[in-house]
Amino acid sequence: MDETVFYEDGGVLITNARAILGGVTYSLSGVTSVGMGRQRGNIAPGLAIAIAGVIVFACGGFGLLERGSWLSWVWGILGLGAIIAGIYIVATAKARYTVIVGSSSGEKAALMSTDQAHIAEIVGAMNRAIVGRG
User: Fold this and answer.
1) 18 near 26, Cβ under 8 Å?
2) What's the pLDDT band for 66 if we cut at 50, 70, 90?
3) CA–CA separation, 34 vs 63, rounded Å?
4) For the whole model, what pTM was predicted?
5) N-term to C-term CA, the chain
6) 39 pairs with which residues across the strands?
7) What dihedral do alpha carbons 123, 128, 133, 134 form, nearest 10°?
8) Residue 2: how many CA atoms within 13 Å on its side-chain side?
9) Is 14 helix (H, G, I), strand (E, B) or coil?
10) What are the extents of the domains in the chain?
11) What's the burial of 14, exposed, middle or buried (CB within 10 Å: 0-12/13-18/19+)?
């Protein structure tokens, strides 16, 4: 039986017999399910920067650092800048999407990307290949 290619792009190849995802080959005869998973973006760095900014802003704005000096304003402005930067980092944290391959031994995240459409296309091709396998 000839292999029918359902998807091919870069390091990804999906045929009716196998799937090559990120350099790992999966036999489709052993694949019981395919799905897409989502991990939210890493917001920890942004939160840390924003919290540090709140502390610096509070200390500078209330005169706890350099009381009565123009440096108090500088600390306040630096803190405000850190708050804004932290919020920006949190807001722009990209989610990661994964191809989840299930077999009799469990599920495994086989491929990860921030491009949801790319992962959805791969999952769709794998599902078509499994159905086409018969």
Assistant:
1) yes
2) low
3) 58
4) 0.70
5) 13
6) 96
7) 120
8) 3
9) strand
10) 5-36+98-133, 44-91
11) buried
Note the pLDDT tens digit of each residue in 75-130.
Answer: 888 999 999 999 999 999 999 999 999 988 888 888 899 999 999 999 999 999 98
Sequence-distant (6+) residues with CB within 8 A of 83 are: 50, 53, 54, 57
28: tokens are: 């489709």
Hey, what are 123's tokens?
A: 């999952």
Report residue 93 as tokens.
């944290």
pLDDT in tens, 26-53: 888 888 899 999 999 899 999 999 999 9
**Phi-psi region for residue 106, left (φ > 0), alpha (ψ -120 to 50) or beta?**
left
Whole-number pLDDT of residue 14 = 92
